[in-house]
Amino acid sequence: MSTESNQGSRSYLFGIVLVAVLGGLLFGYDTAVISGAEKGLQAFFMGASDFAYTDFWHGFTSSSALIGCIIGSAISGILASSWGRKKSLIFAGVMFFISAWGSMCPESMVLAKGEPSLTLLIVFNIYRVIGGVGVGLASAVCPMYIGEIAPSNIRGMLVSWNQFAIIFGQLVVYFVNFFILGDHVAPIIESVGNGLNQIVNGADAAWSIENGWRYMFGSEMVPAGLFAILICFVPETPRYLAMIGKDDSALYVLSRINGKAEAMTILSEIKNTITVKTEKLMTYGFLCIFVGIMLSVFQQAVGINAVLYFAPRIYEAMGFDNPMVLTVFNGIVNLGFTCVAIFTVEKLGRKPLLIVGSLGMALGAFGVACTFGNDEMQLLCMISLMLYSASFMFSWGPICWVLIAEVFPNTIRGAAVAIAVAFQWIFNWIVSTSFVPMANSLGYWFAYGLYGVICILAAIFVWRLVPETKGKTLEQMTDLWKNRK
């Protein structure tokens, strides 16, 4: 017997995870691509003759993918349980690809190309919703897939790479949009009141209005196609294979990852927890589901998307002349602090990182609330905002996904993860749509003061209710929740 069959192959495991985290990269890519394309898109539809493209329409169009995200996450449990984790990810990849192509060419070879209309806008939004379904599905199933295939001693680290891929995907699309725009000029749009706008530099920005936004959305076809193809070559998770009675296939995958002897032990533990293929959602008590849902709620309610989605607007409101440069720098800092979680989650545990991150975010948020608008404290305000963002990146960003992937018992994981992630996207929408009106009407001090209070509540919630899952197998979650009922 070879050494690899005795000890398992780390290269095989890491190859599988590398393919799986491409789903996270697409998650980040799809949600951030709108940031570079939205002005050209707005200017294009402002040229419609059959309806007025108002701020309402633009706000809806910019966030329409979130509708798909909620749908995709809500159905992820059904698909993951009936189709399996692998086929669900293949489906997500296909959704990404269709959305990228359709968003680039919403005319779909049926409508007249280059002629904006209400019908074309509706079709465009349908394609964006399709992409959102892929995002919602990938956001739930990718961490689940990695969590179910990874050994318990490095599971947290491997699932954390999914968050790294999300942030990396956002950075990639920022640079892709920058290179697509090149020497061309983005449209400058000014408000004329009643939700209507006008284009200031229409002639100079003609290329961006007609073609730029199309290429930005279409660029996603490359990673989407690559993901849809590569995911076909990775195995189904051994937990799912065991649940549908394919013990030999499950043992084969476990052996390649953990070695033959360890694989037999793991398979035995899996079989002991799935004597019944499906159980009712509340089999392990209300607290089990409540913890999963509140992890998702707090991940969004702490307000991080107020930074990720509106960073240029915030830095500009602070008085900085180079908001895009600061936004890119902030993104690099975020990527670095995500690595902190990757390399410490198995040493320090999940709860300490979440609690410290919550307190760090609270300190940063209160710092922004106290210094915003004070020119003499501009630098301190910027540092506070970056502290707030960086603290999220080594705590709630990756660790929430780790816990959601591993905290639920095998038999209810698909449905429980779907519910938790659906709540995450709902609160994502609430935070992202409420921040600008709240900041404009009540002030940035109020918005960040509120986020600071929520961060304190998040720390208390983790301290009192969230179980530590460091070093525990997924099968041990069954006993953990049975004992806490």
Give an account of the 3D structure:
The chain is an all-alpha fold and 485 residues long. It is 75% helix and 2% strand. It has 22 helices and two strands. A two-stranded antiparallel ribbon has the order 1-2. A hairpin with a 2-residue loop joins strand 1 and strand 2 (196-199). It is globular, with a radius of gyration of 23 Å. The model has no long low-confidence stretch (mean pLDDT 87).
Q: Regions with pLDDT < 50 over 5+ consecutive residues? A: none
* Largest sheet entry: 2 strands, antiparallel
Number of strands: 2
Average pLDDT works out at: 87
Terminal CA distance reads: 45 Å
Helix proportion of residues, in percent?
A: over 70%
Radius of gyration: 23 Å
- Relative strand content: under 5%
Order of helices and strands: HHHHHHHEEHHHHHHHHHHHHHHH
Give structural attributes.
485 residues; two-stranded antiparallel ribbon; 2 strands; mainly alpha
Care to give the gist of this entry?
The protein has 485 residues and is mainly alpha-helical.
Q: How does the SSE layout of this entry go?
A:
Elements: H1 3-7, H2 10-45, H3 55-63, H4 65-82, H5 85-104, H6 118-149, H7 155-181, E1 189-193, E2 196-199, H8 206-218, H9 221-230, H10 238-243, H11 247-258, H12 260-273, H13 286-301, H14 305-308, H15 311-318, H16 323-348, H17 350-371, H18 378-393, H19 396-406, H20 413-442, H21 444-465, H22 476-484
Antiparallel strand pairs: 1-2
